[in-house]
Amino acid sequence: MDALVEARMTARERCEVAVIGAGPAGACAALAAARAGARVVLVERAAFPRAKVCGCCLAESGIAALAAAGAGDALAGATPLRAIRVVSGVRAMTLRREAGVAIAREDLDARLVDAARRAGAEVRFETSARIEPDRSVQLTRGERVSTLDARTVIVADGLQGGALDGVPGFDWRIAPRSMMGFGALLPSGSLDCPRGEVHMHVAREGYIGAVRLPSGEIDIAAAVAPAALRSAGSVAACARGLLAGVAHDADAFTRARWRGTPQLTRVRARLAAPGILVAGDAAGYVEPFTGEGMSWAIATGLAAGELAARDAEAHLAWAARHAALVARPKWRCRAIARILRSPALVAAAIAIGSRAPRPFERLAARLEGAVLP
User: CATH code at 164?
Assistant: First the structure.
């Protein structure tokens, strides 16, 4: 951090839009607000680059949204996806689906933050943020604590963020049977996963996806029942069990740096209050089978940033705007998640699809690709 930014952090500051969290939603919010002419401060608790639990696949709508925002170059070098292989027990089907790309989150997030910075946003890494009852933002970097006053704060700190913990009315409502997520990067030869093909393995206890990244590494991301994870004894053992038949290097699974998430399916009690908008995963999440998670984050981030920059009363319009962007696809994703909890239905679908794939390929096209977000 340069001397000018260090000096600014010693006193109370002001900006028009503060954004908490530099994932796709937060970076896109900062980008949109800065391009709309607002003075923007983007804060992120981690140092970049940093790994995330993510399927690392971006669907068509997310690609289009980045292009429309002038940030399409963030996907340079991404791997085009051409097929989806769905496995359940001994049954499997492969669907042609030439849409979407695979890209490492470390690369995508860093590039989107760079785009926000080039647009004029001030970016502060290794800085945690917490909204106080008076709507000011307390910033902490090491032992240094400062206060940021913003006309609008966009909270995009994900499922595990704590920026809203001190603000009444933003509690999580977690689905009773919600699954937990985990993921890791594995070396190239750890399992069968051709470039450009997404593997999805579905079981009674949950599902796991694998995709080869441009680097050659294989990204693994899963959503499983908490009881199944406990029964497996370790995340690595759970992953190997779900990927039985394609996992070759047991030691690679054991050595991998696994990361986890809290229970996935949840919503906020509300998404806005005077001076506060919530976007991306921080606003709510559903089980991530349809591959739209990052697209939702990008869309809601861009919309929140533009609205916050242009409207001092942005909170009045945000709930309706957010619902218009994600309510229908999230309902569809919930319906698919319910089907996945029935092994008999999944097995029947695969049995039919392996013989007559075209109807399923058309369905996959409508769903933006059955891949992890």
Answer: 3.50.50.60
